[in-house]
Amino acid sequence: MSDSRREFLGKCLLGGGMMLGGGAGFSAEEQKRELRQSVMGWCFNGRNVKPAELAAKCLEFGITGIEGIPAEAYPEVRKMGTEISLVSGGHGFKEGPCNPKFREKVVTGLRKGVALAKEVGSKRVITFTGMRFEGIDDEKAADDCVSAWKEVVGDAEKAGITIVMEHLNSRDDSHPMKGHPGYFGDDVDFCFDLVKRVGSENFKLLFDIYHVSVMNGDVIRRIRQNKELIGHYHTAGNPGRGELDENQEINYPAVIAEIKKTGFDGWIAHEFLPTYEDHFRGLKDAAEMVRGA
After folding, report:
1. For the chain, which terminus, N or C, has the lower number of CB atoms within 10 Å?
2. Where does the chain have alpha helices with state H?
3. Are 200 and 161 in contact (CB under 8 A)?
């Protein structure tokens, strides 16, 4: 570990100085609130890490959840003591309800996802708006999204599951998973409005801190203003979608402290692309930072 990284993490863990400026005035109870941490499994596919290996490392680091792995791997990782923090809604970010031709796939996929989530003890199912298409009418596309989600949210309510819609950035075109040019739900305030229009406690936003930072910024204020509408969090460093270290611009200790202050009781999942030679080191560092913030 570099000296600069040690210094950065030391500030995170000690909670001192400028790094925790956003947490000033927290009560002792708020400061001690523990967030449940998870990891997005797909991020480690490029390092040929199997779900069970990743789950074992997560448990070693105090990370008790996992998501973004094949459903076939659920029994093995659950047997190890890892929870499934988020289940697929059966459609990816490219094929969402903003495009009428994908509506049936979205509705069917979300219903299956809700059933699977209930079966494995998960409380969250992910959905996306989908991509813009030739001839799109933004107002109609928004209406189509809301209509499709309203069709399935009743299933989620009955099952005690929350569907979370993810906002993604459309700015970064350097890598197919660092940004998504053409994504319809690329403005986080617009996405919050869609959540409000669905009008259910079982439909919320997946607030990806990395994507919000890239696309909109003002992360802490947006968390404060919309905390009741957020059902799940993702992390990654900006720029680059790498580790949560000193080489990126997001003040994660302050952001995490703010999330704790809101009383959030869901999952915060690490979704960064590992760049270190020891590809698990960044995950361990992130877990320590979240606990120390």
Report:
1. N
2. 3-14, 28-32, 51-61, 74-79, 103-120, 138-159, 188-198, 209-215, 219-226, 252-261, 281-292
3. no
First to last CA, the chain: 20
What ranges do the domains of the chain cover? 64-251+261-277
Residue 77 C-alpha from the chain's centroid: 20
- 34: pLDDT confidence band, cut at 50, 70 and 90? confident
The whole model's pTM is what? 0.89
Q: In what order do the strands lie in the sheet with 83-86?
A: 83-86, 65-67, 36-40, 267-270, 230-235, 203-208, 162-166, 124-127
CB count within 10 Å of CB 262 equals 15
pLDDT 10s digits, 239-286: 999 999 999 999 999 999 999 999 999 999 999 999 999 999 999 999
How far is residue 274's CA from residue 39's CA, in Å, rounded to a whole number?
Answer: 12
* Dihedral sign of CA atoms 199, 222, 38, 30 in order: negative
Note the pLDDT of residue 97: 98
Residue 221 — φ and ψ, nearest 5°? -60, -40
Supply the DSSP string of 144-172, one letter for each residue: HHHHHHHHHHHHHHHHT-EEEEEP--SS-
pLDDT at 33: 63
Bridge partner residues of 165 (DSSP):
127, 205
Name the nearest CA neighbour of 38 among 243, 234, 219: 234
